[in-house]
Design goal:
It is a single chain. Helix content is 46%, strand content 16%. It is of the alpha/beta class. It has 3 domains: 85 residues, no CATH class; 295 residues, TIM Barrel, CATH 3.20.20; 95 residues. The strands form 3 sheets. The protein has an 8-stranded parallel beta barrel with strand order 7-8-9-10-13-14-15-16, surrounded by 8 helices. Strands 1, 2, 3, 4, 5 and 6 form a 6-stranded antiparallel sheet that branches. It has a two-stranded antiparallel ribbon with strand order 11-12. Helix 8 links the parallel strand 9 and strand 10. The model has no long low-confidence stretch (mean pLDDT 96).
Length: 507
């Protein structure tokens, strides 16, 4: 460290670009992330690491000013004072204050957005490396309450981790943060308090999805239980009406209108309550996504149109909406279904979004759906939001399989032991009996499992038990620190494939 401080003393008065290009000192055990180097007032602030961990290193010729604001250990003096600062909540908040581009923002005016779920707090650098070459904006901090429970993280930690990674990458083009699949206001408040500008409102628990399978007589009985004013409005606005959506037409007969009213009106009233609540907290600086994808049946175009018209009637401003599409969007694998039928139905959903407010169509469980990406990109005109999460975790698993076969075997066995429990939370159809015994496999064959659908789904849904395992966890994070560069390179390549197949224009 003494040699590093001597070297820094020759740079402290230089310009930022000169410091960035010359700050690395080969005689030191500390390595700087060059893109992170920032000159602020009388100090150099940068992300750095040693063989154990990452930290913020603040260098200054004075003891007062910025260096005094960071929490951490003061470690030397050679005409330069240095402070080694842990990646904690205080220092994350200070970074957001000093460098506002490290804070998430509303992306309501960004045309193409990519949700990059990062369950480890390590993936954002790789996501940024890919996205910065495309005309798209990343949502780097994206987690559901289920993911928080399984990983033991908090929304504050998720946002802070994204802040540190954005600072490390020196990324100044803006990013989002999404409290994903939230179902109640207390959970929404937790996400908002952590600084998340995007809320994905999951209406599955307040809409009456089972009414989609009711007989018409049951629907009629439930419809008659609504107030006379509501019945009259639904009849006047929807019964036997045909609506133009671009060059297409959608007809809603009386039976469909009654069914939609019974299924969705209560949920849409709740959406208004949530919208008013979030607007009171954040003004216009938020993104509200409406999620109706957590159902067993695809969202019919007539239902999609009904929902959108009712949201507009209530004055709910939303940035994106996630229908449940035909076919299966299972975790970790490509689209399951007929691509031609998907295209036929998706065209109508895209037309509804384009002609009724020009909101983004949101694709949930959207990673690795390479078969239908060209259709999605073309039919939305790139006005879309794509949600990914587990695919970034699987790239971490791939890194472990390639570099630490014994650790991979431990993770794989943990996944097998917890697979049935995780099936209660995730819907997949993998036959894991097709996966060979990893103890009998040569080390060089282990990475090939990440090309096998059954193994991908096994490892995808068992991330929680793996990350909570007291024997595996320290080994895993130590390996990820060691192979950080390789992980970022794999994520860059993987997400470039996603963006290219979607047809996102390059920058």
């Amino acid at each position: 460290m003494k040699e590093l401080l001597k070297h820094a003393s020759t740079l402290i008065g230089s310009g930022e670009d000169h410091i960035r290009e010359n700050i690395h000192n080969h005689s030191s055990n500390v390595a700087f992330y060059k893109d992170s180097v920032q000159k602020k007032d009388n100090a150099i602030v940068a992300m750095a690491c040693d063989f154990k961990s990452k930290f913020i290193l603040v260098l200054s010729s004075r003891e007062d000013g910025i260096i005094a604001d960071f929490s951490g250990e003061q470690i030397g003096d050679c005409g330069v004072i240095a402070r080694k600062c842990p990646l904690n909540e205080h220092n994350a908040q200070l970074l957001r204050t000093l460098f506002p581009w490290t804070a998430p923002v509303s992306l309501r005016n960004r045309k193409t957005t990519i949700g990059c779920g990062d369950r480890l707090g390590l993936a954002s650098v790789g996501h940024i490396a890919a996205v910065k070459h495309f005309d798209a904006t990343p949502v780097l901090a994206q987690q559901s309450m289920r993911e928080l429970d399984l990983t033991g993280r908090t929304y504050r930690q998720v946002v802070d981790d994204a802040t540190f990674m954005v600072f490390q990458a020196g990324y100044k083009d803006g990013f989002g943060a999404d409290g994903d699949h939230l179902k109640n206001i207390p959970d929404i408040d937790v996400a908002l308090s952590a600084g998340m500008p995007m809320i994905t409102l999951d209406l599955s628990e307040v809409m009456l999805a089972k009414a989609g399978d009711w007989q018409n007589s049951q629907v009629e009985t439930a419809f008659q239980a609504l107030s006379a004013d509501v019945q009259r409005r639904i009849e006047q606005n929807y019964f036997d009406k045909t609506f133009k959506v671009g060059s297409l037409e959608i007809s809603i007969d009386a039976a469909t209108a009654r069914r939609c009213a019974v299924m969705y009106l209560k949920a849409l009233d709740f959406a208004l309550e949530v919208y008013n609540h979030v607007k009171a907290r954040r003004g216009d600086e938020f993104d509200l996504e409406i999620s109706i994808d957590e159902t067993t049946s695809p969202t019919l175009p007539s239902h999609h149109l009904f929902i959108v018209k009712e949201l507009r009637l209530r004055g709910v401003e939303f940035t994106s909406l996630a229908p449940r599409f035909i076919g299966e969007f299972q975790k970790a694998v490509d689209y399951i279904g007929d691509p031609a039928e998907f295209a036929r139905q998706f065209e109508v959903h895209a037309a509804i979004a384009r002609t009724h407010g020009d909101y983004k169509v949101s694709i949930h469980s959207g990673s690795d759906k390479f078969m239908v990406y060209p259709t999605i990109g073309q039919m939305t005109g790139m006005r879309l939001h794509l949600k990914t999460a587990g695919t970034s975790w699987l790239e971490a698993v791939r890194v472990i399989a390639e570099n630490d076969p014994e650790l991979y075997r431990l993770m794989h066995k943990c996944a097998l032991a917890n697979f049935n429990d995780m099936l209660r939370l995730y819907h997949i159809t993998a036959d894991i009996g097709k996966i060979d015994n990893v103890d009998a496999m040569p080390d060089n064959d282990l990475p090939k499992l990440m090309e096998m659908n059954e193994a991908r789904q096994l490892l995808h849904i068992t991330y929680g038990p793996i990350l909570r395992d007291k024997a595996i966890r320290p080994l895993f994070f130590a390996a990820m620190h060691k192979f950080e560069k390789q992980y970022s390179e794999k994520l860059k390549s993987h997400f470039e494939k996603h963006l290219s197949l979607l047809g996102v224009p390059g920058r």
